[in-house]
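Backbone-to-sequence.
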């Protein structure tokens, strides 16, 4: 059964030595309690994170309605563990929700996830790796390594507010017919620009990302 194995929050900002934003909320840790989830509003002026009690610090690049929640699969952590030869705990990659038996990277952009009885989330795009993530991992060339692996996890919108707790079941209630997955969209963005035209046609793609991709496509012509 697909389920949430961990709910992870950054309870307070921590120093970030590698970006102009001097603090970071990437250091998320599991909590053993019910956490309310709601749409946070615009990226730079809203509540930033969809989870009450969580912190997003770099609001130019993270948070907002289209990145309200970040999910990563425990199975992908296990894959990384085998390659990095070290234990990777839930929340290490900065995700709010660590999942089990849910194909996060195979999720179709715009599908609907029901989490527990009330919360409904919608995958929007994969996580773009940054220098803060690389610094946290302590792995040389981590940004490129993460990009090549094509296991980005998924950002999610909040379609219906609710609460989440570790152990909650996850059900995919609806899946768009276009079939463009988080993994395919991430590949188009990071390593295979020839896939960009098809990606731009996908409903549910964040508006600011669509603009960025359209500009990139024009430059390639």
């Amino acid at each position: 059964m697909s389920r949430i194995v961990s709910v992870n929050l950054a309870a307070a900002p921590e120093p970030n030595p590698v970006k102009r934003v001097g603090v970071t909320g990437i250091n998320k840790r599991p909590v053993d309690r019910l956490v309310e989830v709601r749409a946070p509003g615009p990226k730079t002026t809203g509540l930033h994170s969809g989870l009450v009690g969580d912190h997003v610090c770099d609001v130019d690049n993270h948070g907002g309605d289209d990145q309200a929640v970040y999910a990563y699969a425990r199975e992908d952590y296990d894959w990384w563990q085998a390659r990095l030869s070290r234990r990777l705990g839930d929340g290490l990659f900065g995700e709010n929700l660590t999942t089990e038996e849910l194909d996060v990277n195979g999720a179709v952009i715009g599908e609907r996830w029901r989490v527990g009885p009330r919360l409904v989330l919608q995958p929007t795009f994969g996580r773009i790796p940054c220098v803060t993530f690389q610094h946290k991992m302590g792995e040389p060339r981590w940004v490129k390594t993460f990009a090549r692996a094509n296991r980005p996890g998924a950002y999610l919108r909040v379609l219906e507010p609710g609460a989440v707790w570790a152990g909650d079941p996850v059900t995919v209630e609806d899946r768009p017919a276009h079939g463009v997955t988080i993994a395919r969209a991430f590949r188009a963005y990071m390593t295979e620009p020839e896939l960009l035209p098809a990606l731009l046609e996908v409903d549910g793609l964040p508006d600011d990302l669509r603009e960025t991709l359209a500009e990139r496509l024009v430059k390639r012509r």
